[in-house]
């Protein structure tokens, strides 16, 4: 048996490390751990994120640059992909993304999805995702507006409407961001908004220097809630003239002599006109038309004349008013048969169709009436007035509609006088009390029905010693039962207001005219929503004849002209040639018949002023 010397083992042990080093180290264990996303900015669920700021994704180890692709790192909003550029940090642990395309609108949801991103060993990141909401970086855009660019005939009282793509901050709508200009002059306005604050409605508070004119609207810098300013935008339009025609002439037959218009304006914005026109049988027909603002045309109420289609001579007088439901009430005479009153009743809330319904039977006492009137009160009272000749005497008579008995009840006995009293006015106050005016020896008296008899209001109005022009006086009631009387004298046209406290008539200024010495006549009288009287005044001036609208100025205690001359009128016989109403903007509407050759046309105009 061979024995190995002990020193040999010692030698082997001493050489082992060197031998092992010469043979090489064993390979380290393989990297099989996938990378993890340890943080990101913005956080999941964050809101108000600025998409122009970089997005940061931080991993727990270095990732392979070539594993970052549009397929492995996806950014999207609402299903649409968002493009980006990226960089990797030097240690390859932080991925920085910078968007190069953005959502179509903001704020918008943004989703970040990671899939198949690998580390340097090729280990794939587990699919992960997070999301956030972007900040609002979309500026509001002016999408539409009324009037349209290039529109013509625009009324100053109509609001200018601006429609934006999103809600705007009301505080950002100022003369600096929204300007309405008449040339170089900016016009004042008030702005209102719809509930969603996407619509801005501008109501002008200052008027252009003259009419018609072009107005330009410039919009720039109107902001949304996030402070994004709108880009510059603008449009322009032409206004209507000072007195703007409402549609064309109302005549049913252009060659006829259309005349005696009565105009009324409803609380629903409606405008209604009743007028007379000769028929082919030597008589007169009565027509009523309503303005269709959408179609911009006058539409006949019914299929023909209010008084039907008579086949014999019928010389008709007509009067019209609107009841509390804005339904036309038309009274007319039918030859020697008397007076008939009809109400227009709509079939539906859309006012698509309707019909004329007669109130009771014919008022026989009005047979041969030569002029008539109709009025209604807030309580539904309907009163009519007429005058006719009986046994050589002129009679004024009134009646009210009895809804219970469906009959017309006379108000007292007829008032007899020796002279004609054309155009006898009647009004009804809010309590249903009826008033009418009549000429008396001492001037013009206004009577009130107290339920049993007629009571005169104070002393008769008298602006000279002689009797007034009996065919030219008018009554009007304001919404607060303010009562006014217009009358014509040798000294001119005067308007008086009833003072119920003092029990007297107070003159509103002196004789009304725009030129000293002019011949004047009151054509129509009405009040606005504040109870302020307006008057259509005929004047025969050196510059020509025509009609002017005047408004009482309680502050200056004077009559102010509303615009210039409203219309020309060459014939001095003006007792029923014009009618006056006030629309929802407190702007006067006038209707008159204008002679043209052998005929006459009924026309309507609106004062193109600012809403009061």
State the shape.
elongated
What is the count of distinct domains? 3
Low-pLDDT residue intervals, each spanning 5 or more residues: none
Structural class: mainly beta
The total of beta strands comes to 46
Query: What would CATH call the architecture of the largest domain?
Result: 6 Propeller
- What is the residue-averaged pLDDT? 89
Radius of gyration: 42 Å
Largest sheet: 5 strands, antiparallel
Helix fraction, binned, reads under 10%
What is the CATH third-level topology name of the largest domain? Neuraminidase
Q: Count of DSSP helices? A: 1
Q: Under the CATH scheme, which class of the largest domain?
A: Mainly Beta
What gap, in angstroms, lies between the N and C termini? 136 Å
Proportion of residues in β-strands:
35-45%
Summary, kept brief:
Residues 31-132, 136-238 form the SbsA Ig-like domain. It is elongated and about 175 Å long.
Give structural notes:
- The protein has 3 domains: 37-133, Immunoglobulin-like (Sandwich); 142-238, Immunoglobulin-like (Sandwich), CATH 2.60.40; 243-607, Neuraminidase, CATH 2.120.10.
- It is 3% helix and 44% strand.
- The protein contains 1 helix and 46 strands.
- Strands 26, 27, 28, 29 and 30 form a 5-stranded antiparallel sheet that branches. Strands 39, 40, 41, 42 and 43 form a 5-stranded antiparallel sheet that branches.
């Amino acid at each position: 048996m061979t024995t190995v010397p002990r020193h040999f083992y010692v030698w082997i042990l001493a050489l082992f490390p060197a031998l092992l080093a010469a043979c090489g180290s064993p390979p380290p264990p393989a990297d099989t751990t996938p990378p993890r996303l340890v943080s990101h900015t913005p956080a999941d669920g964050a809101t108000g994120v600025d998409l122009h700021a970089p997005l940061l994704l931080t991993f727990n180890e270095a990732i392979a640059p070539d594993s970052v692709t549009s397929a492995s790192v996806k950014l999207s909003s609402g299903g649409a992909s968002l493009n980006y550029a990226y960089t990797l940090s030097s240690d390859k642990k932080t991925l920085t993304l910078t968007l190069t395309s953005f959502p179509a609108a903001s704020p918008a949801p943004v989703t970040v999805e990671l899939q198949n991103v690998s580390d340097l060993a090729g280990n794939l990141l587990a699919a992960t995702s997070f999301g956030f909401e972007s900040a609002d970086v979309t500026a509001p855009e002016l999408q539409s507006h009324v009037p349209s660019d290039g529109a013509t005939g625009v009324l100053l009282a109509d609001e200018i409407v601006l429609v934006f793509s999103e809600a705007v901050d009301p505080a950002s709508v100022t003369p600096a961001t929204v300007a309405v200009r008449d040339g170089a002059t900016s016009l004042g306005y008030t702005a209102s908004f719809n509930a969603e604050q996407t619509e801005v409605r501008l109501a002008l508070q200052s008027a252009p220097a003259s009419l018609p004119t072009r107005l330009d609207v410039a919009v720039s810098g109107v902001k949304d809630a996030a402070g994004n300013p709108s880009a510059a935008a603008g449009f322009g339009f032409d206004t209507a003239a000072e007195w703007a025609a409402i549609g064309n002439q109302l005549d049913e037959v252009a060659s006829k002599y259309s005349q005696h218009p009565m105009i009324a304006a409803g609380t629903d914005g409606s405008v209604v006109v009743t007028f007379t026109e000769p028929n082919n049988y030597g008589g007169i027909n009565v027509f009523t038309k309503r303005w269709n603002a959408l179609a911009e045309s006058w539409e006949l109420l019914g299929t023909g004349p209010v008084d039907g289609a008579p086949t014999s001579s019928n010389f008709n007088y007509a009067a019209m008013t609107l009841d509390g439901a804005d339904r036309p009430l038309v009274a007319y005479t039918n030859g020697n048969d008397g007076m008939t009153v009809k109400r227009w009743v709509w079939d539906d809330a859309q006012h698509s169709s309707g019909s004329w319904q007669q109130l009771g039977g014919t008022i026989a006492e009005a047979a041969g009436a030569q002029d008539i009137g109709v009025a209604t009160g807030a309580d539904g009272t309907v009163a009519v007035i007429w005058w006719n000749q009986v046994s050589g005497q002129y009679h004024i008579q009134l009646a009210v509609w009895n809804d219970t008995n469906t009959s017309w009840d006379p108000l007292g006995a007829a008032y007899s006088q020796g002279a004609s009293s054309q155009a006898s006015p009647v009004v009804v106050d809010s309590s249903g009390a009826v008033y009418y005016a009549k000429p008396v020896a001492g001037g013009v008296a206004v009577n009130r029905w107290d339920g049993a008899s007629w009571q005169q209001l104070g002393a008769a109005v008298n602006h000279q010693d002689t009797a007034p022009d009996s065919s030219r006086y008018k009554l009007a009631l304001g919404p607060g039962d303010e009562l006014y009387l217009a009358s014509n004298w040798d000294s001119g046209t005067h308007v008086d207001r009833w003072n119920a406290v003092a029990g007297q008539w107070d003159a509103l200024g002196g004789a009304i005219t725009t030129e000293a010495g002019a011949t004047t006549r009151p054509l129509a009288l009405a009040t606005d929503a504040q109870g302020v009287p307006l008057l259509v005044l005929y004047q025969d001036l050196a510059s020509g004849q025509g009609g002017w609208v005047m408004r009482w100025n309680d502050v200056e205690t004077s009559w102010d002209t509303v615009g210039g001359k409203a219309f020309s009128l060459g014939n001095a016989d003006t007792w029923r040639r014009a009618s006056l109403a006030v629309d929802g903007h407190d702007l006067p509407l006038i209707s008159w018949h204008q002679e043209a050759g052998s005929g006459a046309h009924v026309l309507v105009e609106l004062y193109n002023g600012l809403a009061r």
